[in-house]
Design a protein that fits this description.
The chain is of the alpha+beta class. The chain is built from two helices and four strands. The chain has one domain. A four-stranded antiparallel sheet has the order 2-1-3-4, with helices on one face.
Length: 93
Amino acid sequence: MTLSDESSEKVHYICQTYVEQKPGRGGQGSLKIGKQFEYSTAAEAQNRAEREAQSDDCAGADAYMVSEDPNSGEVGSPSFLIRLGNVPEFDEF
């Protein structure tokens, strides 16, 4: 591995699904993360999100990418590729 490989960002492509939680005492339901899959390409993550969103037990699905600094382990904010169905607002993410 060269020095430039060690300092380059690593990109992760994620498909994340959401399921609805039953309403609590306040009577308001919420979303929680159901499944999470990592892929090597954006197309794979997006295709999985599209398939998962069609499932009866899936409230919604996101496909997104994040960059990771391998030196610090810091992960940047997600860049959404596709958002399907009932998904949380970005600030809830």
